[in-house]
Amino acid sequence: EARSDADADAARDDLARTASRLLSICEAFDEATRDTETLETAAENFQELLQVETLEEMNQKIDQLAGEGKLDPALVLTAAKAYMSVKESPMVEEEVKDVMAHLYFKMKETMGRQQPKEVRILKHLLAVGDDPRDIRNGLEEAFTPGPELTTEDEDFLFCEAPALLKTIDAVLTAYEQQQGKASITGQAAELMQPEVIEKMKQIKGQIEGTFL
Known about the structure:
This protein is mostly helical. It contains ten helices and two strands. The chain has a two-stranded antiparallel sheet with strand order 1-2. Helix 7 packs across helix 10 (194-211) and helix 8 runs antiparallel to helix 10. The relative contact order is 0.12. InterPro entries: At4g37920-like.
């Protein structure tokens, strides 16, 4: 019995750590908007990206920044603001708009692929329809082993059912921990929307009822 209690305590501790990590990913976007030094560093890295001569060099530079851990929420936020500022402007050449769009979406894509694959699979499942059959089909695809491929447009990933369930439980735990706290804003708030949480609970129910 003592061993069982110890195992349960260890599992709860592990879940709490995972929940904290997932929440911190979202809150990092919010923190970036408040940290002046972080934004200044991001601006410097962004200027370096604009000095390259070709899109190929730009892609290589983005991959380099990602490898060095410098492709952070602040840099993506800087690119997003730059892109939005020129997107609708009649004073900016179309070629410049295209470069800014490429820069922003390449950054966003690269940073997204730094997330654990279970998180990426969960985001995909949250985007499918509410029909239980669609959710089940998505889960069947996610749990079917096969080669993992990443293309320019989409990823082909799979994971074990317990691993995805652990990720969902971590998010739900983070949601419960943050109830009543006023500090949740921006990206973190979007993740913690009640309708998103309800969809996660549907996915969780199907995993527990069919795939375990």
